[in-house]
Specification:
Blueprint: H1 11-14, E1 20-30, H2 38-58, E2 70-71, E3 75-81, H3 86-106, E4 116-127, E5 132-133, H4 135-144, H5 147-155, E6 161-166, H6 167-172, E7 187-193, E8 196-204, E9 267-269, E10 272-274
Parallel strand pairs: 4-6
Antiparallel strand pairs: 1-3, 1-4, 2-3, 4-5, 6-8, 7-8, 9-10
Region (Disordered): 213-263, 274-293
Biased composition (Low complexity): 231-246
Protein name: Guanylate cyclase domain-containing protein
Length: 293
Amino acid sequence: MRARPVKAATAVTAVRAVKTQHYAILVVDIEKFGSRPNPVQAWLRERLYELLEGALDEAGIDHRAEPRPSDRGDGVFWLLPGSVPKIDLTGRFIDLLQAGLRAHARTSNADGALRLRVALHFGEVAWDGRGWVGEDLNTACRIVDLQPLREALGAGQRSGLALAVSDEWYRGVIRHEYPEADSGAYRAVRFDAKEIQGARVWIRVPGYGTPPGIEGWSADGGADGSGDTPGAGDTPAAGDPPGAAPVREGSGGGGSFAGADVHAQQVFGGDQIVHGSLNFGGVPESRNTEGNR
């Protein structure tokens, strides 16, 4: 008797039904993470979580409920409740995170440097039983890996972070010129990444009137992306190290960020100075996107 052939499952019948929920999506990556030895990587990850949680707490943003942050190795993505005010994430949270990074930079050498690429987006995301899935989450992760954002952080040595927001986030929040949003400091760049073509995102580097390093990346129809000379209010204090951009007047200010512990030679973090026997030799960051992971 001949066996009956098994009919292949169609894409529709094979896909599990998942229910999405609306979230504000925060994605963060550490600059030059892969060039550090394992003990330093572990310490930087610990500091990252301390600074993120501290800034969220000080900004009054609820982050204790599920879901908890999802680790990316060299960074993290965080799904925050859709009810979180986006202006608080855009303004006060970013200012507080910058203040924490600034404090870290003042007591760190190059091996202990912690500088971040930050992306903000929102949309529908679902839990499929193994992990988080959704086009909007994919988009946020594409944004944080954009080369113009890498260029802006690399050129903006006075700042501890470079921020990119989706066009949807910009139109919904930043373009309305809330005082805490610092709307004039954003410039649009073209957003081409894998399945995304011809879109745009908006970049800001705290401490700069316009984001440095993005000349040539401007989006058609957007701001020209040219780098203005920072005003007097953007000038860092004498002796500030790279990453120690000033907190703008009227910002949320900083909180108290605890130090972290690592056994390393002259690697400093927070308010502690730590000594040990390891010799950390950094490798210059490649301009290739994957090489910067």
